[in-house]
Design a protein that fits this description.
With 434 residues, this protein is α+β, with helices and mostly antiparallel strands. The chain has 11 helices and 17 strands. The chain has a 5-stranded antiparallel β-sheet, with helices on both faces. A 5-stranded antiparallel β-sheet has the order 6-17-14-11-12, covered by helices on one side.
Length: 434
């Protein structure tokens, strides 16, 4: 086309003529042919549903002749059983109420008794007085759409099934993890005394903090009688975690108890444990531990402590006056590393109101503060000094709260064992008179 104020260029006039010819041929397409050969189905029914007119497209889908349908069948006769039910309960009442229903998914009985999904739109034609005359209906082929929807549905079902399987696997894994944690907790408890014995003239307290419920720790402790007036105690930490560490823990506990009953000298007991561990694990992966072993001997007015250490943090004494002292044991070697190892012995006296604390390095190696610094022995000594000297159990309670405050900064198991001599009960004026 060209502008009205400009002559057409050469060749443009021929294009205009061709376009006009094509447009004219389309205008000559009859309305009847458009109705019969439309890309969708058309039909008109009386108000009772009797088919009065139907186009060729819909007849081809049905595989039927016009004479079989017009005046002989109703619209519902073209539907499947489910479609008939839906038409009676939803489609027809809605059409009667609103006069138009659009895009309803139904199935018709196509040629060869196949089900053909369609989308149906119906509208009631009324007279000038508003009386309903007939129903005009269009039927669109929805096979491709139904296939697409079916594919989407399969994809959704597959995704939901995958989600269900993943959720079931997660629940199984969680249940397995809970069972594993319960088994590990039972095994961990079997490596520790169920409760500490009652010692005349002494108090004792203990605590075990598990850093991870999924791993067995290697910390251990015990307190048991030797002979009249003497009690043995020990606390240690096996290198590593898991079942192998638990096996070493069990071996160390029973070795220490057996050695103490034979000869309770602390250095001799640790030497025996060193020999057992080195001989047992020398040919394979080396296994070793740190340990403190000691003997308590009660006497008038005090308790004598004789202990030896093999590479373990020094014990701490909280005095009745509030001061805090370490029991130094320098030079003690890790237990089980060498065939012969030196162990350092030390002695101390516990007076009324004093408490001896043994601990594993999970406490002092906890990470604290924004810079994740080691808690350290100095901070531990300051913490103990700030606690009132009210006995082993009170100190254990305070330290368990400290361990809980570390949160995820505590990544190693920690064992605590506190032993003390009770402070004398305060006397009253009436007692003195008595």
């Amino acid at each position: 086309m060209c502008r009205t104020d400009q002559a057409p260029e050469p060749g443009e006039e021929q294009d205009v003529d061709t376009t006009d010819a094509v447009f004219t041929s389309l205008l000559e397409d009859s309305a009847e042919e458009l109705y019969e050969q439309a890309p969708c189905g058309y039909l008109s029914t009386l108000m009772d549903g009797t088919i009065a007119r139907i186009n060729t497209t819909l007849l081809d889908w049905l595989g039927m002749d016009r004479a079989q349908v017009v005046g002989r069948m109703r619209f519902t006769d073209l539907l499947t059983v489910g479609g008939k039910l839906y038409h009676e309960t939803h489609f027809a009442p809605l059409l009667q109420m609103k006069g138009e229903v659009s895009g309803i998914a139904l199935d018709i009985r196509a040629a060869g008794k196949a089900r053909m999904p369609v989308l149906v739109t119906s509208k009631v034609k009324t007279s000038e007085d508003g009386e309903p005359l007939l129903i005009r209906t269009t039927v669109f082929d929805a096979r491709d759409r139904r296939a697409y929807e079916a594919e989407l549905l399969r994809g959704r079902e597959a995704a939901e099934e995958a989600h269900r399987q993943a959720e079931a696997a997660r629940r199984r894994a969680e249940a397995d993890r809970v069972r594993l944690q319960e088994a590990l907790a039972v095994l961990q408890q079997s490596l520790l005394p169920s409760q500490l014995p009652t010692i005349p003239g002494l108090e004792a307290g203990s605590y075990y903090h598990t850093a991870s419920p999924d791993l067995l720790g290697g910390d251990f402790y015990d307190l048991f009688p030797l002979d009249c007036g003497r009690w043995a105690f020990f606390l240690g930490d096996v290198c590593g975690k898991g079942p192998q560490a638990a096996a070493v823990t069990s071996l160390a506990r029973y070795t220490l108890r057996a050695a103490a009953l034979h000869d309770a000298d602390p250095v001799t007991v640790l030497t025996t444990l060193n020999t057992v561990l080195h001989e047992r694990y020398a040919s394979g992966e080396g296994r070793y531990c740190t340990a403190v072993f000691g003997v308590l001997e009660t006497d008038e007015g005090h308790v004598g402590v004789h202990l030896a250490s093999g590479g373990h943090p020094s014990a701490v004494i909280q005095r009745a006056d509030g001061s805090t002292d370490y029991v130094p044991t320098p030079g003690g070697l890790l237990v089980g590393v060498l065939p012969q190892a030196p162990f350092t012995a030390a002695r101390a006296d516990l007076l009324p109101g004093d408490t001896l604390l043994l601990y594993t390095d999970g406490l002092t190696e906890a990470r604290t503060g924004p810079d994740r610094e080691l808690y350290g022995e100095d901070a531990l000594c300051a913490f103990i000094a700030a606690q009132p000297p009210t006995g082993p159990q009170a100190l254990i309670t305070a330290l368990s709260g400290l361990l809980a405050s570390f949160g995820d900064g505590l990544d190693d198991d920690t064992a605590l064992l506190a032993l003390g001599m009770p402070a004398p009960l305060p006397t009253t004026a009436s007692d003195e008179l008595t």
